[in-house]
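Lab notebook page, bench 4
Experiment: in silico fold of construct C2
Operator: M.H.
Input chain length: 244 residues
Purpose: comparison with the prior construct
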Amino acid sequence: MTESTKARNTEHIAIERMYHNKVAKSYDEMNKLYRPLNLLVRKIRLLEISKICHGRVLDVGCGTGYHLIPLHCRGFYIIGADISSEMIRITKNKEKNADYVVCSASRLPFKNHAFALVLCIATLHHLPKPSTAIEEFHRVLHNGGYLYLDEPCYNFLFYFPLKLSKHGTPTEVKGFRFQELIRVLCLNNFLIKKVSSLTLTSFLSHKINNLTLAYALFKIDFFISSLMPTSITRSVRIVAQGMR
């Protein structure tokens, strides 16, 4: 890596840290995290994680504890990691009994093979070099441990309207092409165990308050996504197993 690339990456991370420290207090409301549709998506994630994980969990990009707190309440030993000290402070105020660390996803301060599962929700696309973080995820996982990813996918149909809306952080990249994300995971000795996707939910989760309507849309979305090529859906959820 050249010195200029290192400098750009350092600046990128500094901007991300500053932005998320600034918005931490309003983050939950800004992203409408507790709307019914978002809660349904979270419930699915928590159920899937509960089925595959029986050990220590690392939540990378834990934010304000949206997944960390319910996992801790279910009895998981979980560590929250985030680049934003303000996000960590807010999460600590909500749940004082979990453990936290302020760090970059690309430089995790943990020993090799320390976790049974790494959880990373909508974080990789904020990083200047996501492949470095994926290398770190593999390093800190047990042999056979799981990586649970949920990331926006790049394609013209969905990225262009997002770009016009100017939604996102100052350094947020456009997301991954599905095939690119799978390739990087495989290059880092991850075995892909499950792939699923959502389309409508990703667009409408901020707008729907009615639980019955949210549930109906969620079922429709699963049906539509099952018919569409994963490469043109709005977001993709991947469960991968780290192999040695």
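Observations: The chain has one domain: 3-242. The domain at 3-242 is CATH 3.40.50.150 (Rossmann fold).
Next step: discuss at group meeting.
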